[in-house]
Amino acid sequence: MRILAAMSGGVDSAVAAARAVEAGHDVVGVHLALSRAGGTLRTGSRGCCTIEDALDARRAADLLGIPFYVWDFSERFRDDVIDDFVAEYRAGRTPNPCMRCNEKIKFAALLERAVELGFDAVCTGHYALLVDAPTGRELHRASDAAKDQSYVLGVLTAEQLAHTYFPLGDTPSKAVVRAEAEARGLSVAQKPDSHDICFIPDGDTRGWLAEKVGTATGDVVDRTGAVVGSHEGAHAFTVGQRRGLQLGVPAADGKPRFVLEVRPVSNTVVVGPKEALATAEISGERHSWAGAAPQTDAFACEVQIRAHADPVRARATVEAGRVTVVPDAPFDGVAPGQTAVLYLGTRVLGQFTIDRTLSAVPVGA
Where is the tRNA-specific 2-thiouridylase MnmA-like central domain positioned along the sequence (predicted)? Predict the structure, then answer.
């Protein structure tokens, strides 16, 4: 196969490209330039798309003896990931930029260009398994549960899965990948993993959003609507947050309060007891299936609402374009804007963006 290897500059994508070469594929490496900030370096940074990363990717490609290119996707990344991130926070939702990047950049813009250029598949260093079944290609959890990235890949469609290649999916651990990189002479063998949001390299999401969205004083209220404090911008709060609430009125029971809801139109933050974070139902209209769609409109599954959350047994229904999930045991602290990924065993069925939640604890309870 002709393989386009997306090389981030990290150890995972370098080893994935090496395995593709070793398997006899015709491999070309490409690094995605997602920012035009010319002086960006990893020093003090916690991102994954810096100039240093591009140089690391080039060195790995040179060692593997494959052609290497840098493609400028900065405008598409700004429009589809960064602007979306800001818009979601403005709307009082909690977005996952890694999901949007996989959906809009790595497996949409990049894959589209790859197919146009005659490549059969895009290769990445994600930890997930692809299984060719009678009904088509399926996406499954990786062999190493600790590194499994099937959650953030839940946005992939059947067409995208057909042109995807994950050489690391059955690797038993990250330690094995690092040891292999060392044995191959790859300079990134011990390079630290990237984390946090790549376009906020210092990790200060609250400060970054304040610059983009601005600040505006608003009320913090309890579930009855009584004002218990104030804030400088609702965008700075997420459901489940406990710290930094600056409440002037203590709870009657003396227990800590948590953010239960963010209302951007009125610039209001709603707080309440931890018990009120229990969520009895979630739903959303923006959804997709990772391969063949379920054969029925109601089915049992497991649902994961965060990248590293434990899956929860649930019942899902699809009606009038909306997916609704009722868990066997309530979810804890679900925020609109989060992604719910549906599983059947190890297989990813699909995903939806949560836009409605129903608390398991009614007001006054």
Answer: 208-272
Token digits of residue 21: 């070469």
Determine which one of 48, 49, 123, 198 is catalytic: 198
Class at the top of the CATH hierarchy for domain 2-184: alpha beta
Residue 9 among known ligand-binding residues? yes
pTM, two decimal places: 0.89
Lowest mean pLDDT among 31-35, 58-62, 163-167, 205-209: 205-209
Q: Any idea which fold 277-359 has?
A: Elongation Factor Tu (Ef-tu); domain 3 (2.40.30)
What CATH number was assigned to the domain covering residues 215-272?
2.30.30
Tell me if 110 is assigned to a ligand binding site.
Answer: no
User: Does the pLDDT at position 41 exceed 50?
Assistant: no
User: Is 13 assigned to a binding site?
Assistant: yes
Given 98, 101, 123, 301, which residue is catalytic? Answer: 101
To the query of whether residue 48 is one of the catalytic residues in this protein, the response is no
Q: How confident is the model at residue 362 (pLDDT cuts 50, 70, 90)?
A: confident
101 in catalytic set = yes
| Tens-digit pLDDT profile for residues 289-329 | 999 999 999 999 999 999 888 999 999 999 999 999 999 99
Domain positions in the chain are: 2-184, 215-272, 277-359
